[in-house]
Amino acid sequence: MSHIKNPCNMSESTDILEFSNATLPAGRHGQTEMRGITFALKSGQLMLIKVESGNEYLPLADATEGLIAPKSGNIRWQGKAWHSMTPDIELQSRGKIGRVFEKQGWLSNLNVIENVTLSQRHHTQRPEREIIREADELAKYFGLPEIPRQRPAFVGRRELKIAEWVRALSGGHLLLLLERPENGVPDDYLPKLIDAVQTALKRGAAVIWQTDRDLAWNTSIWPDEFRYRMRGTDMVKEVEAI
Amino acid sequence: MFSFISKAGERTVAWAKSTAHFFAIFWSILFLATKRTAWPRTTRNVFMRQILFTGVEAMKFVSLVALITGLSVVIQAQIWLGKTGQSQMLGTILVIVIVRELAPLLVNFILISRSGTAIATELANMKVLGEIHLLECQGIDPLLYLVVPRALAFALCVFCLTIWFIVVSFGGGYLYGILAGVGAGAPNLFIANVLKAVHLPDVFSLLAKTFLPGMFTAIICAVEGISVGEAITEVPQAATRAVVRSIAALFILSAIVSILSYT
Predict the structure, then answer these.
(1) Which residues in A lie closer than 8 A to residue B230 (C-beta atoms)?
(2) Hey, what long-range contacts does A145-150 have (CB within 8 A, 24 or more apart)?
(3) A95 in contact with B at a CB cutoff of 8 Å?
(4) How close B45 comes to chain A (CA, Å)?
(5) CA nearest to A96, candidates A42, A173, A8, A5
(6) CA nearest neighbour of A144 among A189, A210, A89, A98
């Protein structure tokens, strides 16, 4: 897994994300309200959340990105509350987050490779050829010949999901938000995703992985991991970080 | 009676708010357009695509309308001015009719119906499908990425296509006039006649009647598109509102510019 760019020069002890007794409103598309969420995620740490059947959609990722304000409590990104940032800093901060989306993950008027490279082309000065090469190498690692060049409407569900993995994992993001990334992809592909996530963790990224699949839940992905299970509106901690 | 006054007041406040919102976006776009950081390669890409869709791809239809307009107006002018012995007024009449009024108005109309509706529908669909949210999640400002390049490209296209409209309508009309035997003399005389009739207020009027309505149209269509909720049934409503408001803005602006330019 040499394709994943070194994400950051964060020191091991820096808090990337901190939720303090945050209550998150239900948000869009039937999301479940979340109450009393408290955790701190540092560089190189993984947080695995098992979601309940029927309540799969959580507002956690949107709240993490500062797109949903908590009803109560605080959310801090790299030590700062989202509402205290200037709009430019807010946008730059979101550019450091890679995400596999629960629902809509594509701009329909761009082809898939343009979608995958959009954030990096927007936020960085990296040469386009280098960004595309990195994405194609990651796609090959996951078993695709390359990132599709067609519009998302003409690409299969499995290829699109893998392209979403590539988008989240390329460019060296500080934080990966994986909202049920295994959906739409056969279990055979999961070990490679786990391997890619481990590489990202090893290089200093923090990861939040929401899952409803036993395969991901039962795999010990990373020594420095937290496990939570959703019970109604509560997120219950299962295993202490090692 | 009280209910009527209350409703009128509510509507006035709502209108004032939406107008203030529109001008806030207008000034934000002008401000952002001057910032170098507001033009990353992704935004430049959207700008170029909009030029292609709104400008280049509309050229054929604009040319056709210009040709037909040119035939009608130039021939009529040549015939009637010839009959009244006022042939030397040809340039002035053409500039008044085509350059000052018809060309900017028709080009704006064509682009409102062709590209304005496309912008409103595209952005409304993006909103309904969650694509605006997707941009925000990636740290991309929807105003910067979707509205700024479209507004500026739209305004530039209206201006360029208006110039093209004038050239085609004059050229087509002149050629047909020669073929029909009611020509206005040598081409250089025709061109000189027209150019002599163009004054500074005409240049100001042409710039104002193309760039301003062009930008207003794009902003109105974008704002209407983005303002839909989550239902797909809101998309055609947004497109209709966008067209009606763009046309209203076009007429109001054209009238204001005419009054300021020629009184």
Answers:
(1) 28
(2) A147/A112, A147/A113, A147/A116, A148/A111, A148/A112, A148/A113, A149/A111, A149/A112, A149/A113, A150/A111, A150/A112
(3) yes
(4) 10
(5) A173
(6) A189
A105 interfacial to chain B (CB closer than 8 Å): yes
Per DSSP (E only), the strands in chain A are 15-24, 34-42, 46-50, 72-77, 80-81, 97-100, 175-179, 206-211, 225-231, 234-239
Contact of B148 with B209, CB cutoff 8 Å: no
State pLDDT tens for residues B65-114. 999 998 888 778 877 887 888 877 777 788 888 888 899 999 999 999 99
**Quick check: B137 and A62 CB within 8 A?**
yes
Whole-model pTM: value is 0.88
Burial class for A13, CB neighbours closer than 10 Å (0-12, 13-18, 19+):
exposed
Mutation choice for B interface testing from A65, A78, A104, A131 by most B CBs within 10 A: A104
Tell me the residue length of chain A.
242
pLDDT of the residue at A111: 95
CB contact under 8 Å between B138 and A95, yes or no, is: yes
Residue of A nearest to B39 (CA): A122
CA-closest candidate to residue B37, choices A110, A89, A116, A94: A89
Q: Which B residues 180-239 touch A at CB under 8 Å? A: 230
How is residue B87 written in tokens? Answer: 């042939």
The answer to whether A148 and A163 have CB atoms below 8 angstroms apart is yes
Determine the residue of chain B that is closest to A109 in CA distance: B122
The token pair that represents B52 in the structure block: 């292609």
How confident is the model over B207-226, as pLDDT tens digits? 999 999 999 999 999 999 99
A67 contacts on B by Cβ (under 8 Å): 133, 136-137
Exposed/middle/buried for residue A180 (C-beta within 10 Å: 0-12, 13-18, 19+): buried
Q: Which of residues 91-130 of B touch A (CB under 8 A)?
A: 122, 125-126, 129-130
Q: Does residue B48 sit at the A interface (CB-CB below 8 Å)?
A: no
Got the DSSP string for A161-172?
HHHHHHHHHTT-
User: Which has the closest alpha carbon to B248: B22, B9, B30?
Assistant: B22
Whole-number Å distance between alpha carbons of B239 and B121: 6
What burial class does residue A76 get, using C-beta atoms within 10 Å of its C-beta: 0-12 exposed, 13-18 middle, 19+ buried? middle
Mean pLDDT of chain A: 88
Chains A & B: contacts with CB separation below 8 Å: 70
Rounded Cα distance between B24 and A208, Å, is 38
Residue in chain B closest to A106 (alpha carbons) equals: B131
Give the closest-approach CA distance of A123 to chain B in angstroms: 8
Nearest CA-CA distance, residue B31 and chain A, Å:
15
CA dist B5 and A225 (Å) reads: 63
Query: Sorting pLDDT into bands at 50, 70 and 90, what band is A9?
Result: very low
ipTM of the complex: 0.90
